[in-house]
């Protein structure tokens, strides 16, 4: 009851402020039942029916088109991620093989200096493998590169003083990316660069 009295005071205040110039306070006042707004209908003011409220509430969902669109976008994003992941894996493998080649050549020089003897780094371009020949019929394990990569270069001898016969090795992934490993003939140092 107190709430109804408070509303009546507000209606009187609005009426006096508006000066009764076509202002109808019942159009904006909430009804007692369910908090629905009153609307002007034929022959008087009536609250919104419960059926109208149910129809409005039942239309809050996703359409089939919206769901299919979201599924298409998610599928497209997954395909892009899978494609880029496979390329990343191939690039990582190629970089790893180039790094192994560089470190093996560098290791051959270090062994030559430590053991004070001639060491030969050998490459078999047809079999796609390389190894260190220690002499006296001793060799290191042979490193094979994947079939899709190509290696080129000649054997390089390292001498006990740290110098070498000099040489250059290239590793190609068959898709335009190459690494070059250079061995300096005077200092015997090894360097790698991407071409």
Write the layout of secondary structure elements.
Elements lengths: L1 H17 L19 E4 L2 E4 L2 H9 L5 H52 L3 E6 L4 E7 L2 E2 L3 E2 L5 E4 L2 E3 L8 E6 L5 E6 L6 E5 L1
Antiparallel strand pairs: 1-2, 3-4, 3-8, 4-5, 4-6, 7-9, 9-10, 10-11
Task: Write up this protein.
The chain has 3 helices and 11 strands; from the N terminus they run αββααβββββββββ. By secondary structure, the chain is an alpha+beta fold. It has a domain at 93-194: minor pseudopilin epsh domain (minor pseudopilin epsh fold). Strands 3, 4, 5, 6 and 8 form a 5-stranded antiparallel beta sheet that branches. A 4-stranded antiparallel beta sheet has the order 7-9-10-11, with helices on one face. Strand 3 (119-124) and strand 4 (129-135) form a beta hairpin. The radius of gyration is 42 Å and the shape is rod-shaped. The model has no long low-confidence stretch (mean pLDDT 80).
